Amino acid sequence: MHPAQLWKPLAGGKVQCRLCAHFCVLADGQRGQCAVRINDGGALFTLVADRVAALAADPVEKKPLFHFRPGTTTLSLATVGCNMSCAFCQNASLSQGPRSGEPVQGRPADPAALALAAREHGCASLSYTYSEPTVFFELARATAQAARALGLDNILVSNGFMSPECLEALGPLIQAANIDLKAFSEDFYRELCGARLGPVLDNLRHIRALGWWLEVTTLVIPGLNDSDAELTALARFIATELGPDVPWHVSRFHPDHRLRGVPATPVATLERAWRLGRDAGLRFVYPGNVPGHDAESTRCPDCGALLLRRTGFAVRDDFLGHGQQRGRCPGCGQPVAGVW
Fold first, then answer.
1. Angle at 261 (CA atoms; ends 219, 285), nearest 5 degrees
2. What pLDDT is recorded for position 91?
3. For residue 121, what pLDDT is reported?
4. 68, 114, 216, 271: which could join 176 in a potential S-S bond, CB 3.0 to 4.6 Å?
């Protein structure tokens, strides 16, 4: 165990964790909803400050980030644990083990060594991803500090259910984020995720205020969050509250975890979500988990010229120019939103 950050002591040996929007109050010996933070003797400790359970060099497009340094590689890392309990989790073996009483797994990890490994392997950034980086805040923050010292970027891939204090602490260290907006219904979040929608919406606004490059992902699940009304409301929130240039990834669900009886999302449903997103005013909407689909590529929202041709997570052609012309449409010359 390692001393945790972002908590406060309470009377009677209890503590309140201030890391995420659950704000768990824990008696001595209790763990938080994430199951990787524990009250031991009236102080809060983390079980994942130095245990990496997943580590890989990925294309940044896999996060997914389509408008942040395309074609580069990012060193992705995670511990076990999550502060949500999504019935449809696509990575449950990593995120949900501690909640099921499994021991905390992982290899010893040092923040400085992780940042150095990223540079040595030619990565432009490090990504805190796969499970939920909020619950391994201490490791992510220390690694992000080491990465910045080496001139590397930091990426957060998150469910967006952290506390405002957590976001402020990460604010100067993170350059880009992809946040899951899983649905646009409090009932969905409560019944299927064990969380709430409101804090996620507030945090998305907060992230925009922090100045991080932001992209949003929705896993579209048949019969649960795929109605025209819900997808339209969600897209309008992004367009009006976050901005029309924020890319929206509408990803294909595959049967997993506790929703193995739900069929995979039809491609036609993603194409419908794509149209609804564009009709709501979003300039960049991408279907996910359908490699080879034409809409994976980026086109200029003004003239329609092809800017980046993708297949899956690979950039096949990049027409965004070089030098002073980098990030401009080759057809009409308009700047294209992103970090190029």
1. 15
2. 86
3. 97
4. 68
Give strand pairing partners of 250: 218, 287
CA atoms within 13 A on the CB side of 36: 34
Enumerate the H helices of 238-317 as residue ranges: 267-279
All residue ranges of the chain with pLDDT < 70 are none
Instruction: Quote the tokens at residue 248.
Output: 């929206």
**Tell me, what's the pLDDT at 97?**
87
Task: Please provide residue 97's backbone torsions phi and psi, each rounded to the nearest 5 degrees.
Answer: -55, -50
Query: Helix or strand or coil: residue 309?
Result: strand
Nearest CA among 17, 16, 19, 8 for reference residue 163: 19
Q: Residues 217, 181: contact at Cβ < 8 Å?
A: yes
Which of 181, 177, 138 has its CA nearest to residue 157? 177
| Residue 119, token pair as written in the block | 């540079």
Nearest to 231 by CA among 243, 220, 246: 220
